[in-house]
Design goal:
The chain is an alpha+beta fold. The protein is 34% helix and 22% strand. The chain has helices at 2-6, 17-31, 38-42, 69-77, 83-92, 110-114, 131-138, 141-144, 156-159, 184-192, 194-217, 224-239, 305-321, 328-339, 429-441, 449-454, 461-469; strands spanning 46-50, 57-64, 96-103, 169-172, 246-256, 259-261, 278-287, 290-299, 343-346, 349-352, 354-355, 360-363, 374-376, 391-399, 406-407, 413-416, 447-448, 473-476, 479-480, 487-496, 500-503. The strands form 6 sheets. Strands 4, 11, 12, 13, 14, 20 and 21 form a 7-stranded antiparallel β-sheet that branches. Strands 1-2-3 form a 3-stranded antiparallel β-sheet. The two termini are 32 Å apart. The structure holds cobalt (II) ion (CO). Cobalt (II) ion (CO) binds next to β14. It comes from Podila minutissima. Substrate binds at residues 262, 370.
Length: 510
């Protein structure tokens, strides 16, 4: 939609791809009576442009932007001007914008190398541009593909200027539900839901890009706080975190060894990740409340490979078995069978891999990470069925310990109760203000103490405890198996679309 509107852009671009992009998007605004669309409002009116000549990257934020070509050329020529000066020039020329970053990049064009130096290759971007816009684009097409930086900083909406994000892994329903694949009625329903899926796909692509960087980068010796901040900063940048429109969906889990879930460092935590650790990285991204919840296990010592293989296989089995009308108990049974077929030898001792039977996957609702349905990882006989339109996170945990977790250690994870007790007043004044902050900043999305710290909240522990005691806030302390054991986790989010299943968080890595 956005892309085809954009072709009505009336500004003439030069041959620099980025300015085409900028002018095309402005054209879209003009068609909308010079008012930004709801989508762009949501994106915070944020553009980032990178010239094809790679000498300048410019990021503009503001209320309304109507740049002209002279200004664009001027900025291009004078890549070295500073941010305040660029902002003033925009203002002097009557543009209501502020510029928050100008980055000068080196001239060696990596993309050109990757493309074998070909300049006039085939039109292959899936931008949806047609006609005049396509023609305009053609020359600088290849160069326009913007690559993610390391660490990841470029918003996904810049990498996908069409604002159409990649689909996840698709699979057809089986047996009695195979008719859905070709049903006209179900297809029509999906078309109506496109924006919803697109939001979820955007969250999923952010997850993939952030985690793939994290997997390459996390090394023994890093503090848990560094690890979490790397993931959280990457997520905020790529999803353009903006209140309830988009952002981090819950605290970054990085539980170690016998701790299976719900550990993230609090301020002052000096824990450093070790070569022999088994670390579960569990983080979430949301767009418009659509949450993608996905986790993997990070190890450095290959001795754990079989443990990881067991859990990855178990999670994939659960994902594969899932479908419309499938019973929870049957999925749990399939997961259990696969998980228990593995064993792992650690330090000369062989352990069976046990599913942690009191942990489950879950359905996901808007802004609610835990919907009403649970997906067991053992056969518990639950006859509840999965239904069309449901979003699920299937997460399985394998352990060399007892296969049961209990709560232990200092709490870091909290969430506002979905249904706040209406009859119980909040007595402490400090608890009232803290509760206001929680409502305003997180709503029903889980948060951790570090997220409160960065908002400038301090000395809140007593107030937080009283909110937990009164039932306004839930505490989610770490969940641990026996000391000395090792636990691993893999998790994927999928949606049961009317015609097929889409595993949103699937990547090349897991
Ligand atoms: Co989950």
């Amino acid at each position: 939609m956005l892309a085809s509107d954009a072709k009505s852009g009336s500004l003439d671009g030069d041959n620099c791809g980025s300015f085409h992009e900028l002018s095309l998007r402005i054209g879209y605004f003009r068609k909308q009576n010079s008012r930004p669309s709801a989508l762009d409002r949501r994106l915070g009116y944020e553009w980032r442009t990178t010239t094809a000549c790679r000498d300048l990257a410019l990021r503009v934020t503001g209320i309304e932007v109507t740049p002209n070509q002279d200004l664009a050329n001027d900025l291009k020529k004078k890549a070295a001007i500073g941010v305040p000066e660029a902002t003033n020039r925009m203002k002097d020329s009557g543009h209501l914008v502020t510029i928050d970053a100008i980055k000068v990049e080196s001239n060696d064009n990596k993309e050109e190398e990757d493309d074998g130096g070909e300049d006039d290759g085939e039109e292959e971007e899936k931008t949806g541009l047609t006609g005049a816009a396509k023609k305009k684009k053609k020359k600088s097409n290849k160069k326009k593909k913007i690559k993610q930086t390391e660490p990841p900083t470029i918003p996904l909406s810049t990498i996908f200027p069409s604002k159409i994000y990649p689909e996840g892994e698709l699979s057809e329903y089986k047996d009695d539900n195979l008719w859905r694949t070709t049903s006209e009625e179900k297809r029509a329903l999906e078309k109506q839901n496109f924006d919803q899926y697109n939001d979820a796909r955007r969250a999923a692509e952010v997850h993939r890009q952030v985690r793939q960087y994290a997997r390459r980068t996390i090394k023994p010796g890093m503090t848990m706080i560094e690890i979490c901040e790397m993931i959280e900063n990457g997520t905020r940048n790529l999803v353009e975190a903006n209140g309830f429109d988009s952002g981090i969906a819950f605290p970054t889990g990085c539980s170690l060894n016998h701790v299976a879930a719900h550990y993230t460092p609090n301020a002052g935590d000096k824990t450093v990740i070790q070569y022999g650790d088994v670390c579960k990285i569990d983080f979430g991204v949301h767009v418009g409340g659509r949450i993608v919840d996905s986790a993997f296990t990070l190890t450095f010592d290959p001795v754990y490979d079989n443990l990881l293989a067991a859990v990855r296989d178990a999670t994939n089995t659960g994902v594969r078995e899932a479908g419309i009308d499938v019973r929870m108990g049957d999925i749990g049974a399939a997961i259990q069978e696969v998980m228990e077929s593995y064993e792992v030898e650690i330090g000369g001792k062989t352990y069976p891999v046990k599913p942690i039977r009191n942990l489950t996957g879950h359905s996901i609702d808007l802004y609610k990470i835990h919907g009403t349905k649970s997906v067991p990882i053992v056969n518990n006989g639950d006859p509840t069925k999965m239904e069309e339109g449901d979003y699920f996170a299937i997460e399985t945990f394998g352990s060399t310990g007892r296969g049961i977790v209990r709560t232990d250690m200092e709490c870091s994870h909290y969430s506002r109760a979905y249904d706040v007790p209406k009859t119980i007043p909040i007595r402490l004044a400090r608890a009232k203000t803290l509760f206001d902050t929680i409502n305003r900043e997180f709503g029903t999305l889980p948060f951790c103490r570090r997220y409160l710290d960065r908002l400038g909240e301090d000395k809140y522990l007593l107030a937080l405890r009283s909110l937990v005691d009164s039932g306004h806030v839930n505490a989610h302390p770490p969940l641990v198996d026996v000391k000395g054991s090792f636990t691993a986790q893999y998790e994927h989010t999928f949606v049961l679309r009317p015609t097929r299943k889409e595993v949103l968080s699937r990547g090349d890595d897991y």
